[in-house]
Amino acid sequence: MTHPFAEPPVQPDDTSPSIAIRPVALTPRPANNGRIFGWASLIGTAVFMFGTLAVLVFPSNMPTPTPIPLNTDAATLISMAATATENLPATATNLPTIAPDTAALPTTVVRQALSAAQLQGILQTPVFPREEISNRINYAPFTIINSDRPRSDFVEYTVVRGDVVDDIARRFNINPDSIAWCNDRRIIFVLRVGDVLRIPPVDGACHTVLGSRQETITAVAEQYTVNPLDIIDYPLNNLFGRNVNDILPGGLFLFIPGGQGEPVTWNPGYEPELDSSGNVVGVRFGPGEAGSCGVVSPGNFVGWGNPLPAGRWIRGFYAGHTGIDLSAPLGTPVYAASTGPVLYSGFSQWGYGEVVVLAHGPYATLYAHLSQRNAQCGDNFSIGMVVGMVGSTGNSSGPHLHFEIRSNNDPIDPSGTPGIGW
């Protein structure tokens, strides 16, 4: 049969002549070949199915495993394992083996089977409780740094409204005395918003060397009752390698760790007069100042009373604040805390403002920041008499009474004195 589409004649300059597709005669496949393949597949499938059924239906020679309770002890487990080994069928124990060619194999360590004693030891080994395993897994893979570790340098703190030294010291975990001994006395006596406090790293005192005194490290240590080596060894002082008898340069700032400074208080002078037997017969407070009453017989001490029952405690006693502060409205009466004469009545340039000081035998009481003084030199007061009115004179941030008790001019804590009430 002639194809309806004739191949065009090949041109001499044609570089891509088309390829003629010639018809291919197909030889038919014998019909019986497919039938033979189908029967063979069917027979194979049937044989596989009957073999599977035989395995599932007919029992094997191996014994059926017996379930083991969870609370079975070690001895029973070992006994059950031995019995199971003895009851293995012969077909399992008499299987032919082929000895390996040991010469052709590399040398290896042959592990022996566990003995009954070894198996019992493993089963009796205690297992960690679940909670202990959980704790071990949850261990954090990093070092925990203590946030309360000591500081190594000073911190500058700016005072805000409502601050008192006691609270600031508590925040920095140091004693209020340490703040008092490292800051200007004016700041310590009355805090004002915006004042900047130097907060030392640990408890101690600060000292600035005066060149005119020719101070040695030993002399400074004696002043603050510490070991001279503690001053040398403290890193902030930069005194490594110095001798305890070295004279320090003027203006050098030192921090005295553990040092005890003097009370930061108003001390215009306290002069007792003694008789031939050594008894105090007269006291002079603030000689030379306008408010001083001269030599006054101190009288006898008869006990204590509360100077401001209507007041509210706002500030405590420490080296930088040698009394307590009691807040009350302006003009609230202030009462004599004990019986005795007036030692001083006037205005204090130190910052106490209007002040009254009374004598009570070996003691003296001081009432500061008054708006009004009801005491004059020569007056003698009994417990509960009005010595003045609450005010805010001097270095004061608001109406309050600054109250002190002094024993031979050494301040003591009024809040720890029975009868005061604070």
How is the secondary structure organized here?
Blueprint: H1 32-57, H2 74-86, H3 90-93, H4 116-123, H5 130-137, E1 155-158, H6 165-171, H7 176-180, H8 185-189, E2 196-199, E3 204-208, H9 217-223, H10 228-233, E4 253-257, E5 270-274, E6 280-285, E7 295-296, E8 312-315, E9 324-327, E10 333-335, E11 340-348, E12 353-360, E13 363-373, E14 380-381, E15 386-390, E16 400-407, E17 410-412
Antiparallel strand pairs: 1-2, 3-4, 5-6, 6-7, 8-9, 9-16, 10-15, 11-12, 11-14, 12-13, 13-15, 13-16, 16-17
What does this structure look like?
By secondary structure, this protein is α+β, with helices and mostly antiparallel strands. Among the domains are: 155-257, Membrane-bound Lytic Murein Transglycosylase D, Chain A (Roll); 270-416, Glucose Permease (Domain IIA) (Distorted Sandwich), CATH 2.70.70.10. Helices cover 21% and strands 21% of the residues. The chain contains 10 helices and 17 strands. Strands 8, 9, 10, 11, 12, 13, 14, 15, 16 and 17 form a 10-stranded antiparallel beta sheet that branches. A 3-stranded antiparallel beta sheet has the order 5-6-7, with no helix packed on it. The model is unreliable at 132-147 (pLDDT under 50).
